Backbone:
């Protein structure tokens, strides 16, 4: 590994946000998954939880995810399990969802430990999941079409989270625990 | 047309922003073009200029664009012509581009007449175009990967433009000239 490469990996690890995460709840188109994971890397997310749809899309989706090196994608069976687990760790779980009781995405404090849940391309977030999370958040729509592409919605909300965290200095000093930091440094650098 | 449909079309036209536009400079993957045009609709953009790459991608790209009903996609041959034309109308042309003299995207005043230019998936914005525009703007990257997907970059910048314009009441009263408003009302409603 060149010194430049080593520096770049350390710089990235120094900016990783262990308390910001994404749950893809049934997102299955490979180009959407790829774009979401790429955006997660760019805003400093370490872990993504992927609940794959229970049908043949599973395979295609699995492929796109394997290609991701800088973000750990954890395959999960039930989104409600992931939600409860994160809530148990004190994480606020937000669903990107156009519901009546949703608040606008810029009204949220993303400097709190936060997980953002995204729904499927076709059916969005289920009622069960929408009520299991702490808050539904929505991006205002000014046009004829009723929703954004899911990777676009993810990016709009995560870029706001990134700005809030930048303003508070969250990217200015390492936030990942030492053991995990060194494990990732090894894996990214040499594996 | 039902009264509800008519109302919905009028509401959308009342929020259209004739002085906000996008230039796709060689973007050619159909799912990216589709996602960008869908985002344009959602933030109230009326017109998009598409400079198609000069090769076989032209056809695929052309297909994705024909499917767009609520945003007018103008096919153009040369991006420098579009840039000069818009500048001649007093529009600030911004290129989404990671260059040394770029400023951060949230530092821009998007309530001015604005065009946002996006580069190709593979090669980005050419040097010629980067120096023809008024300003290069960049979205900070905190990770290992060096750029966002192009439709994601478009959405992040356009959602900031949308927020600024919402805060200034730009969506609260009709801004499209009467003749064009009625032409679009007819086309969307009956054609
Ligand atoms: C294409 S949308 C799903 C549309 C689906 N027909 C529905 O009604 O929910 C896919 C996902 O993108 C996210 N999304 C899209 N537009 C959004 C918006 N304006 N606000 C919040 N989330 C949005 C949500 O997570 C949604 O489940
Ligand atoms: C995939 S990128 C092109 C990457 C290309 N290798 C380059 O160096 O420009 C496609 C387009 O998305 C936009 N884009 C992607 N990431 C961006 C960022 N961080 N800031 C501004 N624009 C970005 C730009 O318009 C770019 O031309």
Residues:
């Amino acid at each position: 590994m060149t010194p430049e490469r080593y520096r770049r990996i350390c710089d990235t690890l120094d900016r990783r946000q262990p308390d910001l995460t994404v749950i893809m709840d049934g997102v299955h188109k490979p180009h959407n998954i790829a774009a979401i994971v790429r955006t997660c890397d760019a805003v400093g997310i370490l872990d993504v939880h992927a609940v794959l749809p229970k049908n043949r899309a599973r395979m295609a989706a699995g492929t796109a995810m394997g290609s991701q090196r800088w973000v750990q994608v954890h395959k999960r069976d039930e989104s409600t399990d992931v939600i409860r687990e994160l809530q148990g760790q004190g994480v606020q779980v937000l669903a990107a969802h156009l519901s009546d009781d949703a608040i606008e995405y810029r009204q949220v404090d993303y400097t709190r430990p936060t997980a953002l849940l995204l729904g499927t391309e076709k059916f969005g977030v289920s009622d069960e999941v929408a009520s299991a999370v702490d808050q539904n958040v929505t991006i205002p729509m000014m046009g004829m079409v009723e929703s954004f592409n899911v990777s676009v919605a993810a990016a709009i909300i995560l870029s706001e989270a990134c700005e809030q965290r930048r303003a508070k200095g969250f990217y200015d000093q390492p936030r990942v625990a030492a053991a995990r930091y060194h494990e990732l440094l090894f894996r990214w650098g040499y594996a």
Summary: Chain A has one domain: 18-170.
